[in-house]
Sequence to fold (417 residues):
Amino acid sequence: MEQQHFTILDLLDLDLKEHDALDLRCLGGRKGLVRELSVPDLNRPGLALSGFFESFANERIQIFGRGESAYLSTLAAAGRTDTVEAMFRFPIPCCIFTQSLTPDAAFMAIAETADCPVLQTSLSSSEFTARIIRVLSDIFAPRATIHGVLVEVFGIGILLTGDSGVGKSETALELIERGHRLVADDVVEIHCIAGNILMGQGANKMIGHHMEIRGLGIINVTHLFGVGAIRDKKQIQLVCGLEEWDAAKVYDRIGTDENTTDILGVRVPQLDIPVKPGRNIPIIIETAAMNERLKKMGYHSAQEFNQNILRWLESESARAVYFSRDETI
Amino acid sequence: MIEREITICNRAGIHARPAALIVQTAARFKSKIMLERAGSRINAKSIMGIITLGAGFGTVLKLITDGDDENEAASALATLFDKKFEEE
Fold:
């Protein structure tokens, strides 16, 4: 999927809560708010301010903390603006002052003429850096849209996939009825975070948590089942592919082999679940979720079962050998 | 596989009723039918998917059909869009 353009205005517009809140406001250079951010990285412009512009990472957001701010005030006191002007000749996406620091008037005037946005946050530099890196890596994460239903069952994020009409939404509805949660129906937007975590969410907040059920039409899950029945986003930990029962296909009967599928380069365990009238799919999904949790805790039902059988067979044959020896004496 | 561009001609854009019409039409065919807007591709047999596209008046979508009856599917859907979903 092509990367959407992300501007500084979008950064200010992000609806982030609690430990993600960036608490940004714009001090000046508003014309430059349309500037695009091309990399999810930051730079501390200390060297640039002192006049060293070699390898200056100008395509990054520039963070001004106490140190940079104090250096700026010594520059202002000495009446020197040459390095600041030189810095703003680069196409910097924006400057952010932390700890509610405010730059001097000369700096603001230069930024204003360069049309470079100057933002301010009340957070400390290290805290702000940690938060914005998290936010930006989410925005710049590889993403994909998948046709399926994402539900959280016993804390495990399960992506139900399958052809339309196979009963994904109906299965999800039954799971919600049994106290589990809906994350997204039909269109699941997946972000790959940190290269190994698949975060799934609805593609659109406006129409999120609605489902289409054949014969009923579109229903609002939040209103019908309450806020306890929904979740905004969830990591995808298991993929359950629902498919019409195919008598010719061999389905897994033991479960010792691990089947996986590839989403955005991340391997996720996958189960193929055949659908047939009279098969209670939601209960199978619930069991799959619990089994997955057991596996994460280090207990693999199928492998353990097989181990026990092997141990038993071994002891049986040992006993047989022992008794047969007895008879010969 | 057939790819063609289609434009939304009805004033209201794709709201619930046109989405249902698209799905009904698409479901008649065995082919895989997808709609794409600005890089996000969705299954044309899913109502919520089509509504998620947020396709308003004048939006250009890419229609992709793939399968045994891809020609018929593409032309049936294109006709539906041209007829403005029998709305106007």
User: Anything to note?
Assistant: The mean pLDDT of chain B is 88. The first strand of chain B starts at residue 2 and ends at 7.
